[in-house]
C-alpha cells in the first residue's frame, strides 16, 4: 500500500500558522474561525475574500512557515498509519526545507520515500494534477490523503482512491476525523476489497 499525502492540515496541524499568516497580512483583528473556514477551501480563496493581493503570497509563505516551525505538530496517531503502509510520498505547496525540518523535529522523516514541493519543483499548484503525474512515474499510488478538495481533485482525475481528513464537506471514498480510525475504517476495508474470493 502506497499513500500520497498532502502536508498542511493533513499530516501536521498547521492551520493555526496559516490563520496567523492571514491575520498578520490583513493588519486587522480577524475572526480566526472565519479565516480557517476560508483557508479550508484554499489560500487563494482566503486571499480574495480578505482582499489580499497575490503579491503578498511570498510574505504569507514566510509568516506561516516560521510560525509552524515553532508551533505545529503532527496529528495524533499519525505514526501508526505511516508505519502500517509500504511507502509514503508527500506532495505539498510548502517548501521542502521546512517540510523536512518538521518531519525531522518529530522523528517522522524515516517514513517518507519522497517529498515533492509543487512550486519549488516547477509544477502548477494543486488541483492541477502535474505533480501527481510526476509521482506516478516513479511510484504506484493506492490512496491519496488530503484535507481539502484541491488535494483530492487530481486523484479523482487519475482514478486513485481518496481519503478526506477532518473535512466531511468534500467528495472522497473515505472520510476520517482521527488517524485512530485509519486502519479499521480504511486500510482493512481496502484489503478486503482487494482480496480474491478464494482468499476469503
Explain this structure:
- This protein is an alpha/beta fold.
- The protein has 2 domains: 2-12 and 74-199, HAD superfamily/HAD-like (Rossmann fold), CATH 3.40.50.1000; 15-71, no CATH class.
- It is 45% helix and 14% strand.
- The chain contains 9 helices and 6 strands, in the order βαααααβαβαβαββα.
- The chain has helices spanning 15-26, 32-39, 43-49, 57-71, 78-84, 96-105, 130-138, 149-157, 182-194; strands spanning 2-5, 87-92, 112-117, 143-146, 161-165, 174-176.
- It has a 6-stranded parallel beta sheet with strand order 3-2-1-4-5-6, sandwiched between helices.
- α1 (15-26) packs across α2 and α1 packs across α4.
- The radius of gyration is 17 Å and the shape is globular.
- It starts with a strand and ends in a 6-residue tail after the last helix.
List the helices and strands and how they pair.
Elements: E1 2-5, H1 15-26, H2 32-39, H3 43-49, H4 57-71, H5 78-84, E2 87-92, H6 96-105, E3 112-117, H7 130-138, E4 143-146, H8 149-157, E5 161-165, E6 174-176, H9 182-194
Parallel strand pairs: 1-2, 1-4, 2-3, 4-5, 5-6
Amino acid at each position: 500500500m502506497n499513500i500520497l499525502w498532502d502536508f498542511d492540515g493533513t499530516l501536521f496541524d498547521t492551520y493555526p500558522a496559516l490563520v496567523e499568516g492571514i491575520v498578520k497580512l490583513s493588519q486587522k483583528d480577524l475572526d480566526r474561525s472565519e479565516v480557517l473556514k476560508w483557508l479550508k477551501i484554499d489560500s487563494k480563496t482566503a486571499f480574495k475574500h480578505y482582499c489580499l493581493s497575490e503579491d503578498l503570497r511570498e510574505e504569507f509563505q514566510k509568516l506561516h512557515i516560521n510560525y509552524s516551525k515553532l508551533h505545529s505538530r503532527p496529528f495524533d496517531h499519525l505514526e501508526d498509519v505511516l508505519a502500517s503502509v509500504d511507502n509514503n510520498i508527500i506532495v505539498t505547496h510548502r517548501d521542502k526545507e521546512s517540510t523536512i525540518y518538521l518531519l525531522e523535529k518529530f522523528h517522522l522523516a524515516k517514513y517518507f520515500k519522497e517529498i515533492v514541493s509543487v512550486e519549488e519543483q516547477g509544477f502548477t499548484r494543486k488541483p492541477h494534477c502535474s505533480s501527481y503525474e510526476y509521482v506516478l512515474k516513479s511510484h504506484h499510488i493506492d490512496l491519496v490523503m488530503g484535507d481539502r478538495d484541491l488535494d483530492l481533485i487530481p486523484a479523482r482525475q487519475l482514478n486513485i482512491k481518496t481519503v478526506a481528513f477532518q473535512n466531511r464537506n468534500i467528495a472522497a471514498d473515505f472520510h476520517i476525523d482521527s488517524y485512530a480510525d485509519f486502519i479499521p475504517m480504511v486500510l482493512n476495508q481496502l484489503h478486503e476489497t482487494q482480496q480474491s474470493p478464494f482468499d476469503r
